[in-house]
Amino acid sequence: MSEIINGKELAKSIRLKLKEEVNELKNANIRPKLAVIMVGNDKASKVYVKNKSKACEEIGIEYEEYLLPENTKMTELLELIEKLNNDVTIHGILVQSPLPEGLDANEAFRKISPKKDVDGFHPVNVGKLSLNQDCFVSCTPYGIIKMLETYNIPIEGAYAVIIGRSNIVGKPLAKCLLNKNATVTVCHSRTKNLKNITKQADILISAIGKPKFVTKEMVKEGATVIDVGINRMNDGKLIGDVDFENIKEKVSYITPVPGGVGPMTIAMLMHNVVKASKQH
C-alpha cells in the first residue's frame, strides 16, 4: 500500500514556522517584504499571484504587486526591477512568468539582484547551486527535496529519474539531487527508450505538463513518484502528469495533484523571502 505525500499539510506546517520567524524579525525591526511584477493578463499567472499574496498575508510578509499592461516595453520592465533592487525595504523580487511576447524573461531574471532573487533564477544563484554553495534554490525543486526529506525517503545512493529539463524545475532539481548524492538521469522529448529508463528509477519525477503521461508500465514496483505537472482539463479539473489512480497501488510514495508539489512551491518561496530578509 502506497503512502500519499501530503504537500498541503507539509506546506501548512512550514508556513506556521515561518510565521514565528517573521514575528521574531519584526521584533528586531526587520519587516520581510516581497515585490511581485506581473505583465499582461495571463489567467494562470493571476491565480498563482493571488496564491502568493495570500501566503504572504498569512505569514505576515509585506507584499507589493506591480501589474503592468500587456504592451509594457522591456526597458520599462528593467527600470522597475532596478528601482526595486535599490529599495532597501524590499527583500525579494519576483517576475511572474510567462511574460507577453516580445519580452525576455531571462533578461528580466538577470536584472534582479541575486540577493533579492527569491525564485532562484539568476545565473549567480544557478551557478552557486551547481557548486553546492549556499544560494536561493528554485522553489519547486526545493519543495520536492523538502518532501523527500520529511517523509524520510532515501536520496543518497538512490537512482532518480527526472522527466523534463526546464530551467525552472528539471535542471535545478537534478543539481539538488546530485548535491544530496543521488544518481540522476534527466529525460526529455528526445530521450530514446524512455520507459526502460523510468522503470529503473527509485525516485521518478515528472515535470512536462502532459496529462497522465506516466503510466503504470513506466514505474518500478515500490518507487517514489513525484508529480510536478498541473494540467487543467476542459471540465476545469486539475490533473497531473502521472496516471495517479492506476499507479498508486504499485509505488511506495506518490504525490497527488492538486495538493502535492504546488503548495510546497509557494511555501519555499516564502522561506526564500524570509531568508533574504535575514541576510539583508
Structure in a nutshell:
The protein has 280 residues and is an alpha/beta fold. The chain is 41% helix and 16% strand.
Assigned CATH class of the largest domain: Alpha Beta
Give the spatial strand order of the biggest sheet: 1-11-8-7-5-6
What structural class should be given to the helix and strand makeup?
A: alpha/beta
CATH fold topology of the largest domain: Rossmann fold
Structure description:
Helix content is 41%, strand content 16%. 40% of the residues are buried. The protein contains ten helices and eleven strands. It has two domains: 29-113, Rossmann fold (3-Layer(aba) Sandwich); 139-261, Rossmann fold, CATH 3.40.50. The mean pLDDT is 96. The chain is globular. The strands form three sheets. It has a six-stranded parallel β-sheet. It has a three-stranded parallel β-sheet with strand order 3-2-4, with helices on both faces. Strands 9-10 form a two-stranded antiparallel ribbon. The N and C termini lie far apart (46 Å). The chain has 280 residues and is an alpha/beta fold. A hairpin with a 5-residue loop joins strand 9 (231-232) and strand 10 (238-239).
Structure characteristics:
three-stranded parallel sheet, six-stranded parallel sheet, 11 strands, 280 residues, single chain, alpha/beta, Rossmann fold, globular
